[in-house]
Amino acid sequence: MSEHKYEKFTEKEEAVVEGIDISGIWNRMYEPRELTEYDLTYMDKVTETPGAESMGWCYQCAKCVGVCPVDHVGSYGPRKLFRKLQTGTNLFESDDLWLCTTCMNCLRVCPKEVDMMKIMPAVREQVVLEGTLPGELQEMLQNVSEYGNPMGESPRKRVRWTKDLEQPPRDLSKEDGSESVEVLWYVSDYYAYHGRGNDAARALTRVFNRLEVDFGILGTLEKCDGDSQRLVGETGLFEELAQHNDEQFQKYKHGTLVVTDPHAFNAFKNHYPKVTGNEYRVVHYTQYLSNRLKELKPLLVKPYEKKLTFHDPCYLGRHNGEYQAPRDLVVAIPGAEFMEMYRCREQSYCCGGGGGGMWLDGVSADHTRERLSENRVREAVEIGAEVLVVCCPYEVSRFEDAVKSTDNEGKLEVRDIAEILDYCMDGV
Ligand code: SF4
Ligand code: SF4
Asked: 297-424 maps to which CATH number?
C-alpha cells in the first residue's frame, strides 16, 4: 500500500486472468478519494456572504451546465463554479465572477435553487467595495455615476434623438408636473444615445403618434435604470438611481409607465419598490402595443416580405414571464413569415449583454470561443431567417456587431419590432 493519502491502492504482484497477465500495475485499484479533505476556505467565503448562501446547496447534478449559454461557448455554469470553489479557486479574484450574464437559465432547471441572480451581485458587491473590478466595468460605473448613463454622454444630449421628428414626444422635463400624461415612456440609455437605438426610438414615437397615444418622456431628467449596475454589485449606485427616477415618476403623474428596456422593466417591477416603497404600473412597450393590437393591425398596411425570427430578451422572458406579447406583434406584420429558433421562449439563448455583460466583452473574450451574440446570430442564419427581430435596446447593436464579425452581412438584418411596425405603417 502507498503511504500517500490520496494514492491508497491495492495491487496483486501476480495475476493472470483468462490467460492474460495483469500482474502488478496492470491490476492496481485505487481507493475512493476523500472529497471532504479539500480546503473550503473560498467556498465558505462565498456561502457566508449574505445573498450568496445558495452556492453551497449545489449537489452536482449538472442540469445547469447544458443550459448555460456561457458554457456553449466556453466552460462555465454553477456546477463548475461550485467544483472550482471546492478545489480552491478564489471566486473573489477570478474572472469567473464576471462571466455570468444572470440569464437565469440555470435557475430554471436547478433542483436545489442555486440562485446565480443573487450569488453574483452579492459576491461582486464585495469586490466592487474593494475596488478590484475589471477596468471596463469601472469606467461604465463611473460614467453612470457622473452622467447618469453608461456611455458617459452629457445628460443634455439625452433628447437629441427627438430633434428631427415631425411630431416629437412631449418633454415633461420642461413642465412643472401640473398636467398629467396617459403614458410616461421611460426611453432608456441605448434608445436615447446609441445611433441604432435612436432609430428604434424615433420609430416607436411615430407608432405612438399614429395610435394617438397621449405620451411624454422625462427628457434630461431621465437617468439610467440601474439594474445592470445592481447586478454587477454597485448597490449604492442602484439605490441612488432608483430614488432619482422614482422622484420623476411621482412628480409627473401618469396612467402607465411604458419602458423599452427589459432591464428597466425588471428594475421598476421587482427592485425599485424595495428601495422606494412605491409600486409602478409598468409594462414593456411590446405589452402595451399588443394590448392595442385591434387598433394597431389596420394601420399595418405596407407588407414586410421577409423571414423573421425573434430573440427573447432574458429580462422580459425568463425573468418576467413575457414571451407572447412580442410574438403577437411579430405575427401581425403583414407579408412576413415567422420562424422560431431552436432555443426560444423559456429556453432562449442569451445575447451576452445582461448582468453587466454589455461592458465585459474584454473579460469574456479571454474565456470564450466566440461571443454569445455571435452564437445566436449563427443560429438565426442556420434556420434561414433574414431578419433577427429584437425588443431590447442592448440587442440591436450587439447583434449587428455579431452579424459583421461572423461574416453574415447581407444575409441577416437586425431590427427592433418598433422599426418594423413603423415601416409597415408608412404612409398612414
Ligand atoms: S443544477 Fe443546481 S444542483 Fe445541479 S449542478 Fe447545477 S447548480 Fe448544482
Ligand atoms: S445565470 Fe445564465 S450565464 Fe449565469 S451561470 Fe446561470 S445559465 Fe450560466
From this structure: 3.40.50
